[in-house]
Specification:
single chain; about 280 residues; alpha/beta; Spore Coat Polysaccharide Biosynthesis Protein SpsA, Chain A; two-stranded antiparallel sheet; globular
Length: about 280
């Protein structure tokens, strides 16, 4: 029986330009935009802590010094649009942060690959900090459960109703066949395109959602891929290669998903959090 390595490491890509949220991101990094009473990156870090993942490799651009300050300074940097959270500040002491600089915004896979020598031969989690899942079980833990069952690369998946399509980025519609009630073997995944998610009826639509747990082969695949004409290396071609090799599964996430990197998704998430704060026992 193969003994799986326990996942204790995660990569947080936070070097993007936040173009979809301009002008909000003109003076504040996307990851520090508030979703409810917390910035989006706090939601992500808390989800990792709740899943017993504490070695966090944060990829930032040279201009995102505020993200580093927010996560490492003993007090909240001045001028941010949310209040100090002493409980979160205390929890941060259990994290091991490593910050890596992506000099140019040339793709998610390029950013994640900067952590390769730190990840080594270990499996790792990687969830985009603007893909938030609100529910009883943290996003990373749901990925870990599928990894433990199938010992392969796994991404989170969601079902989207037609009326919610405009709140999500246009990437990751998938085809798959079932492995169990929650898990599928992915056979195709749509590439990234500009604008909101485009899909033909009838729904609901099965989509990959913003993160996964990966074996070290992620880096090997990334190294072999050809960058696009702009020099970018995205994660979608990595997923396509894993699908071709029958090395990618998806787990259907339980909870309420929001693409907060999209203006409508950010607004919907803030509204959801506001309703939940007013009535914590209500399921929106």
């Amino acid at each position: 029986m193969v003994t799986l390595k326990r996942i204790t490491k995660a990569v947080i890509p936070a070097a993007g330009l936040g173009t979809r949220l301009s002008p909000l991101t003109r003076h504040l990094p996307k990851e520090l935009l508030p979703v409810g009473a917390k910035p989006m990156i706090q939601h992500t870090v808390e989800a990792y802590l709740d899943s017993d993942i504490r070695d966090l490799y944060v990829i930032i651009s040279p201009s995102k010094y505020l993200v580093r300050a927010f996560l490492t300074e003993s007090r909240l940097p001045p001028g941010l649009p949310f209040r100090e959270d002493p409980t979160f500040r205390s929890r941060l002491t259990s994290c091991n942060f490593t910050f890596l600089i992506q000099e140019q915004p040339i793709g998610v896979a390029d950013a994640v690959s900067l952590a390769r020598r730190f990840i080594g031969s270990d499996p790792f989690a990687c969830i985009m900090p603007d893909c938030l899942l609100f529910g009883n079980e943290p996003f990373p833990r749901q990925l870990l459960d599928a990894y433990q069952r199938y010992a392969t690369n796994v991404i989170g998946t969601i079902l989207i109703r037609e009326k919610d399509l405009s709140r999500f980025g246009n990437v990751g519609l998938l085809e798959a066949h079932g492995l169990d009630q929650k898990t599928v073997r992915i056979t195709s995944l749509s590439p990234k395109s500009p604008g909101p998610l485009q899909a033909r009826p009838p729904g609901p639509y099965h989509k990959g959602f913003g993160g996964g747990v990966y074996l070290p082969e992620y880096f090997e695949v990334a190294e072999r891929l050809t960058r696009d004409q702009d020099g970018e290396l995205d994660d979608v071609p990595i997923h396509h290669t894993m699908i071709d090799n029958q090395r990618l599964i998806g787990t259907l996430l339980q909870g309420d998903p929001f693409d907060t990197g999209h203006p409508l998704g950010l607004r919907a998430a803030a509204h959801f959090q506001g309703r939940r704060t007013q009535n914590p026992d209500r399921h929106c």
